[in-house]
Specification:
Elements: H1 3-6, H2 9-21, H3 28-45, H4 49-60, E1 70-72, H5 75-84, E2 92-95, E3 98-105, E4 108-113, H6 117-120
Parallel strand pairs: 1-2
Antiparallel strand pairs: 2-3, 3-4
Helix pairs in contact: 2-3
């Protein structure tokens, strides 16, 4: 069964709409929920939804091993590595027990907080 057959787009969009209405119009929370909805629509338009849903399934699977490029005890150690030129865009790292992803911005590489599966806890029963 493909990922898209397990995922109900219309149901998910209705849920996101309901959640969005629980926040004041123009709030950061409402904007974040709206962004999530538009992101799903965009992925469907580009015919990339199946790939995203497969990534989501892998990310949510507690038995899946997420490849960690490096581990650092401190933020200072991680920042030194980032500045060294060894870091690559998209690399996942662990800094003081927390997940981050290296992202390329116009002004260089930065860390984006990206919780690892073990930080999210066990998946909820279906």
């Amino acid at each position: 069964m493909t990922a898209s057959k397990e995922f109900e787009m219309e149901s998910t969009l209705r849920i996101l709409e309901a959640v969005s209405k629980s926040y004041p119009p123009g709030s950061r929370e409402e904007a974040a929920v709206q962004l999530a909805a538009v992101s799903l629509l965009y992925l469907r338009r580009l015919k990339k939804l199946d790939g995203f849903l497969e990534y989501h399934r892998e990310f949510s699977d507690p038995s899946a091993q997420v490849p960690i490029a490096r581990e650092f005890a401190t933020q200072a150690d991680a920042d030194s590595w980032l500045a060294s030129g060894e870091a690559v865009d998209g690399a996942l790292v662990r800094i003081d027990g927390q997940g981050f992803q290296v992202i390329r911005l116009p002004r260089g590489l930065k860390f984006l907080r990206t919780p690892l599966p073990e930080e999210l806890g066990p998946p909820e029963p279906k």
